[in-house]
Specification:
Elements lengths: L2 H11 L19 H9 L2 H12 L6 H13 L7 H16 L3 E14 L3 E7 L3 E3 L1 E3 L11 E8 L2 H6 L8 E4 L6 H4 L1 H12 L4 E5 L25 E4 L1 H12 L5 E6 L2 E15 L4 E11 L9 H20 L6 E8 L7 H10 L6 E6 L9 E5 L2 H12 L8 E3 L8 H5 L4 E5 L2 H7 L12 H20 L7
Parallel strand pairs: 5-6, 6-7, 7-8, 11-12, 11-13, 13-16, 14-15
Antiparallel strand pairs: 1-10, 2-3, 2-9, 4-8, 5-9, 10-12, 14-16
Helix pairs in contact: 2-12, 3-15, 4-10, 4-15, 10-15
């Protein structure tokens, strides 16, 4: 293929869907990709202004300091807790005080689970008190606890092969860490699979890339028709120790006590604020993070940092007196940790306007030094995103990765809306998240400044382009 023909075909391939619209109508000629590329290049000075304000101006370290004030004041923010509702009310007032527009709370129903007191003690072959964290939605044990022999397995396959050995025992999963997405299935499904073979409880090796004797909690789900048994995470160290003991033929007995209890769903809110678009106010670029957390640590990393970097993106744009053509909508989700409960209800309430959503963005994988943007969308939209990221060459954050998304924006992406999330060091993230180590100490204000700069540049430029991102 000659270079000219290749260019001609590439330009045709990258034609956007429709100018300023989500649904194509008879609205005149569309911009070619070369024209869009030139349009994006025209934002070079604005991108520099955003970066300078975030990294070197009066806004530097602002997102870190704002977050520290909230989490030091409120602490962790579990779905259904008073802490979460206090944080929502504080954020509502913060967004009003920041001068953002259309600040409001959208009611949702969220799960209410409390862990209560919990303990696990190895009685044989020696006495050893283990660090545990009950898993979200787990049932509790009887008041006297459950005392039983342990069956250690490294996989679901091994559990099924040894099903006849599991009746009446506590199943301990010592699954190797093979990345969060693959390994988290043991936390989510471990209790169900253990119950299917007659186990009385399950203890899951924490899904973490690194451990200093710190258990990591998280959500788990029961299955209709399968007995609900208590389940908790234990440390990597204790899981490996029991695996070594079992490999020698040593009998292990554990006493597990958990007061965990599920209550009826209660009222909560998604928190919303905007910068209203100047030309297409009905069209939206949605930027988000979740305000809830688990009930350990401070919920600073997961996802206080993502929520506050998203807020900071709008603050930077507002401080520079910028108003994009489309509305920039900040949503701070509730009950993400329970499986995207608040965001699902938001989607159900707002999907009628899905044709007016240009891009959905979520920061929920920590805010260490960003390496780029993960993106899901058409090839045409990806090409545009790459050009936008090129505006960040001065700070060397230009990469566009595959598989952008997040729990809270997944419903929109599945419906065909382009989606993006910040990318950074996931090994660090999974060392801290869902643990007592999720505190402000895990965060770096300079790295949050960079995250906010990237988030603000991308959201503003996409919201201000003449045309929406193509589906």
């Amino acid at each position: 293929m000659t270079p000219f023909i290749f260019l001609f075909v590439a330009v045709l391939h990258l034609l956007p869907s429709c100018p300023g619209r989500a649904v194509c109508e008879d609205v005149g000629p569309l911009k070619t990709f070369i024209e869009i590329k030139e349009e994006i290049a025209g934002y070079k000075d604005i991108a520099k202004d955003i970066v300078d304000l975030a990294l070197y101006g009066k806004a530097q370290n602002r997102s870190y300091e704002r977050l520290a004030l909230l989490v030091d004041t409120v602490g962790p923010r579990l779905s259904g807790s008073r802490n979460l509702e206090k944080a929502i009310q504080i954020m509502y007032q913060n967004l009003i005080d920041d001068g953002l527009e259309n600040v409001h709370l959208e009611p949702v129903k969220v799960p209410h689970w409390e862990r209560g007191q919990e303990s696990a003690v190895m009685l044989k072959p020696r006495n050893h008190t283990m660090a545990i964290l009950g898993l979200g939605s787990s049932v509790g044990t009887p008041p006297e606890g459950i005392t039983a022999e342990v069956l250690v397995v490294s996989s679901f396959d091994e559990l099924h092969r040894r099903a006849s050995e599991a009746t009446g025992k506590i199943v301990v999963y010592n699954q190797p860490y093979k990345g969060y997405g693959e390994t988290v299935q043991y936390r989510v499904q471990g209790a169900v699979e253990a119950a299917k073979v007659g186990a009385v409880a399950s203890l899951i090796r924490s899904v973490a890339s690194f451990s200093i004797y710190s258990p990591h909690t998280g959500i788990q789900y029961y299955q209709d028709g399968v007995p609900q048994i208590p389940t908790a995470c234990i440390t990597v160290e204790d899981a490996e120790m029991m695996a070594r003991m079992a490999s020698r033929g040593t009998k292990i007995v554990v006493q597990l006590k958990m007061e965990a209890k599920n209550y009826p769903d209660i009222d909560s809110f998604n928190t919303v604020a905007e910068i209203t678009g100047s030309k297409y106010p009905e069209q939206v670029v949605l930027i988000s993070g979740h305000l809830d957390s688990w009930d350990v640590g401070q919920g600073a990393l997961d996802d206080g940092s993502g929520a506050f970097v998203s807020w900071e993106a709008l603050s930077l744009i507002k401080d520079l007196g910028l108003r994009p053509k489309r509305t920039l909508r900040l949503v701070l989700w509730t009950a993400e940790e329970q499986g995207g409960v608040g965001s699902l209800q938001y989607y159900q309430q707002h999907k009628v306007n899905i044709s007016n959503v240009s891009l959905v963005m979520e920061s929920d994988e920590g805010n260490f030094m960003p390496t780029g943007l993960a993106f899901t969308g058409s090839d045409k939209a990806r090409a545009i995103i790459k050009e936008v990221m090129n505006l960040l060459q001065p700070i060397n954050i230009t990469q566009v990765f595959e598989h952008g998304g997040g729990t809270d924006i997944s419903y929109w992406i599945q419906a065909g809306i382009p989606g993006a999330n910040l990318m950074d060091d996931l090994k660090q993230y999974f060392s801290f998240h869902h643990s007592q180590g999720d505190t402000m100490t895990a965060l770096n204000p300079i790295e949050m400044n960079y995250s906010a700069a990237v988030w603000a540049v991308v959201s503003y430029v996409i919201a201000d382009l003449d045309e929406m991102l193509p589906r």
